[in-house]
Amino acid sequence: MTSLPPEKESSEQNKKPKGEKPSGPTFWYLLIGLIVAILLWSWVNENGHANELTFGKFVQGLKSGEFNSQNVHELRLGLEYITFQDQPKAKSADEEAASAEPENSTTEASNASEVDSSSNGNSVADSSDTEETAEAMKRFRIPVGGISPQDLDKLTDLLEEAGIDYTGTSPQTEWGTVFSIMLMAAVVLIFIVFLRRMGGPGQAMSFGRSRGRLMAEDDVKVTFDDVAGIDEAVEELREVVEFLRTPGKYQALGGRIPRGVLLVGPPGTGKTLLAKAVAGEAGVPFFSLSGSDFVEMFVGVGAARVRDMFAQAVQKSPSIIFIDELDALGKTRGSGMPGGHDEREQTLNALLVEMDGFSSDQSVIVMGATNRPETLDPALMRPGRFDRHVLVDRADYKGREKILQVHAQKIKMDDDVDLKRIAKLTPGFVGADLANLVNEAALLAARANKSAVSMVEFEEGIERVVAGLEKSSRLIQEDEKLRVAYHECGHALVASSLPQTDPVHKISIIPRGFGALGYMLQRPEDDRHLITQTELENRICVALGGIAAEELFFDETSSGPQNDLEQSTSMARRMVMEFGMSPKLGRVNYRESKRSPFLQGVSQSSAEFAHSEQTLREIDLEVRRIIDEAMETAREIVRSQKNVLEEMTQELLKKEVMNSDELKTILDRYKTGPQLKPGTSVAKRSGEAPAPGEETPEARKQGTDE
After folding, report:
1. Residue 272 assigned ligand-binding role
2. 586 assigned to some structural domain
3. Which of 36, 125, 632, 688 is least enclosed, having the fewest CB within 10 Å?
4. Cβ–Cβ under 8 Å, residues 523 and 577
């Protein structure tokens, strides 16, 4: 797992050079829309204010003289409307000049004789023009739809008798023509924009097209040098890279390409990054998509997308198809309600056929990633489809150090930062956790206005990842703080008094996370892969140490140790039902659950008990026995070292936080170390030597929860 450079996910048809601004279609869309709006306003302004008049009233007005040649101008007889206005249109400057020429050709004598009268007339005309322009011109519109031709003929006779000029047609204005053209253009433009938003004219209804993102060989910049901490997985995939580079070398010997590679591992271990590194090393196109991309509301779409995805990959071969979260697509068929998964099963069937379908000379490799391999269909896991199963597990101590080195290149660090020590303090962390840790440390340093990240920020970042955000502003009453301090010191004292327990790293009574009023943090010295019965029993004792301290000093317990009881009961039940660590019930696994053959994950189905009621009762009694013995051991340790617990608590109340060095100073003063109290069940096995473990234990936190 390592840092991921910025992705450049773009298809070939949509890829644009860097820095290129968007072309001008957006500007033209806005311009055309503005023109259409102006034309629409002009048309409404011209035709939207016409007064409606009935045909009968107009005929009566002509007969009575209400409408005559003085107030009816520019009358047009149309097929649907008769239009006219009560005033003539104002003459233009050219028309006025043309009409003025005959007047200028008159004799000077007549002009001189009429100078006074013309002056008076001009003044009167000017005043009348002013009055006429002051009045708004009225337009009238008469609907004639359904009027008989005989009535229209009678109307024309009345117009001729009244001396009203009219035209037999109603020609369309230039504005109307332009408006009609622009309206059609706007409709076409909207349709084009809609098609482009849907993916083009060929994709408007193409639900069956694959949603895979094509990353060209030049776009994938990740290589195996960017992958750290999973060296075994990298070596397993180098052969795949070699085949993609030189497929002819293997085909000449009759070798068959590895059809598929399944990357299995916990979340955050770098499965997706590893797939990109394979594509970057081989220099081939990389199709990336998720298992949920095949899910659609329409029947048959998922299978069509599978076929289209493989068709595109074959055209670009040699290429890689990477399906992330494969369990969303490849779950075991027939595992649900009858008829409830037909569409998903059809999609899976299409994938099975395509992975078996392309010939051996087509260099297309399918890579899948999942953290739930036990849910995948057996037909998908068989050789010939996913030939290689590569485990991408949590990194060990050296792997974590390499991952930290990769991520630490991005930040400025002080000289006191020891990545080896940080790697030892983070057992069980995956690559994503370590990347988050480095980022948290950088944010903490920036918050403190520091120029570089120091070891203090890294240790604080580890606590934030493990225990949660510190809530120093939360107000706690003094009696509650005293109870929390005794509780956490009880955990630390029991952990320091028993062998084969992880050393105490820190004790705090500052609230953190969701409801934790305090915590005691333990860190293993080395990576462990197995755990013995003695270690499990001692861990239960440590979990119950806080309850024993509360009982000793307060004569009663509180609701705080709820999480401690959950952890101790869970460990005791697993000892009896899964590990066969009960002498009464024998070496039998009583929990029939399906767990991943690759991962140490949680059971994917509820446990099924095929046991009698008597057996279940004996299981409960054995769990109770283990808890009671561990509780008695914790009580004996706390009672015998009451003075040590008192001093630890007082020191913790003063400082609120104690590290391992301060705790060691108090324990050395009383010469308290790993020891066993006589009479306990643990003392009988005091001679057992610790064995290296298998379970990758994460940092354990004993806390007081509200």
Report:
1. yes
2. yes
3. 125
4. no
The reply to whether 262 and 329 lie within a common domain is yes
Tell me the pLDDT tens digit for each residue of 539-596: 999 999 999 999 999 988 888 889 899 999 999 999 999 999 999 998 988 876 555 5
* Residues in Cβ contact with 555 at an 8 Å cutoff, skipping those fewer than 6 apart: none
- For residues 435 and 74, the model is more confident at 435
252 and 305 in a single domain? The answer is yes
Terminal CA-to-CA distance of the chain, rounded, Å? 36
Helix-then-strand count for the chain, H and E? 23, 15
Only one residue has tokens 């299978």, namely: 303
The H or E element spanning position 442 is helix 431-447
Residue 355 and residue 452: Cα distance in Å, rounded? 51
pLDDT confidence of residue 539: 94
**Of the candidates 176, 151, 156, which has an alpha carbon nearest to the alpha carbon of residue 168?**
156
* Residue 82 · residue 58 · CB < 8 Å: yes
269 known ligand binder: yes
Residues 251 and 142 in one domain: no
Separation between Cα atoms, residue 72 and residue 576, nearest integer Å: 109
- Look up the CATH number of the domain holding residue 63: 3.30.720.210
How far is the C-alpha of 84 from the C-alpha of 12, rounded, in Å? 62
Residue 89 reports pLDDT greater than 80: no
55, 147 in Cβ contact below 8 A?
yes
Integer-rounded Cα radius of gyration of the chain: 44
State phi, psi for 286 to the nearest 5 degrees: -130, 115
312 and 422, same domain (yes or no): no
Within 13 A of 453's CA, how many CA atoms are on the CB side?
Answer: 24
* This prediction's pTM: 0.61
SS3 400: helix
Contact 670, 641 (CB under 8 A): yes
Q: Would you give the DSSP letter of residue 453?
A: B
Q: Indicate which residue of 236, 488, 535, 636 is catalytic.
A: 488
Burial tier of 30 (Cβ tally within 10 Å: 0-12, 13-18, 19+): exposed
265 annotated ligand-binding residue: yes
CA–CA distance, 525 with 501 (Å, rounded to integer):
10
- Residue 150 covered by a domain: yes
Is 566 contained in some domain? yes
The two structure tokens encoding residue 628: 């009671």
309, 321 contact by CB (below 8 A): yes
Higher pLDDT among residues 592 and 101, named by residue: 592
Rounded CA separation 260/243 (Å):
13
Number of domain units in the chain: 4
Could you confirm whether 52 is annotated as catalytic? no
Is-contact 550 487, C-beta < 8 A?
A: yes
Domain that holds residue 630: 478-592+612-670
Residues in a beta bridge with 82: 77, 142
